[in-house]
Amino acid sequence: MAANNQFSIAVHLMAGLGFCTATDRTSAQLAASVNTSPSFIRRTLAKLSKAGLIETSKGKNGFCRLGKKPSEISLLDIYLAVEAPKAFSIHHYEETKPCQVSCNIKSVLEDALNKTQKGMEDSLAKISLCDLLSDIKKC
């Protein structure tokens, strides 16, 4: 299964906007930082804008900037904004009726994975964009 990278790209974009707050950024500038196309970046920016995490304007002189202070934006905010998939998913194969494991594994595993997902989200909520920017500036 291919890994989904929309969350990490969104964090990259938000860090790019937060790192250089003195100037507005264009999707082309942000795309250069990620090393991808501006049209791909604009799809992610649209989700971040819809969530109120960034402000954008369209057109030839279009720009992007943070919509909140970096200390007010958590990684969970970004994760939820881009509607990234859950960390794990359960297979969709049909149950084998005579097998007790096959008939029960999905519900048992779902409980365990929901706890794991909640733990991950709780952890993301404790890390701000400001925290990341501070670590980037140390590098």
Strand and helix order:
HHHEEHHH
Second CATH tier, the architecture: Orthogonal Bundle
Q: What does the largest sheet look like?
A: 2 strands, antiparallel
Distance between the termini: 33 Å
- How many distinct folded domains? 1
Pfam families: Rrf2
Organism: Luteolibacter yonseiensis
Protein name: Rrf2 family transcriptional regulator
InterPro entries: Tscrpt_reg_Rrf2, WH-like_DNA-bd_sf, WH_DNA-bd_sf
Architecture blueprint of SSEs:
Elements: H1 6-19, H2 27-34, H3 38-50, E1 54-57, E2 63-66, H4 75-81, H5 100-125, H6 129-138
Antiparallel strand pairs: 1-2
Keywords summarizing the entry:
Arc Repressor Mutant, subunit A; 6 helices; mainly alpha; two-stranded antiparallel ribbon; 2 strands; DNA-binding transcription factor activity; elongated; WH_DNA-bd_sf; 139 residues; Rrf2 family transcriptional regulator; 56% helix
Give a verbal description of the structure.
- The chain is mainly alpha-helical and 139 residues long.
- It has a single domain, classed as Arc Repressor Mutant, subunit A (Orthogonal Bundle), CATH 1.10.10.10.
- The chain has helices spanning 6-19, 27-34, 38-50, 75-81, 100-125, 129-138, and strands at residues 54-57, 63-66.
- The chain has a two-stranded antiparallel ribbon with strand order 1-2.
- The longest helix is centred in the last third of the chain and has 26 residues, at 100-125.
- The two termini are 33 Å apart.
- The mean pLDDT is 91.
- One of its GO terms (cellular component) is cytosol.
- GO terms for molecular function: DNA-binding transcription factor activity.
- InterPro entries: Tscrpt_reg_Rrf2, WH-like_DNA-bd_sf, WH_DNA-bd_sf.
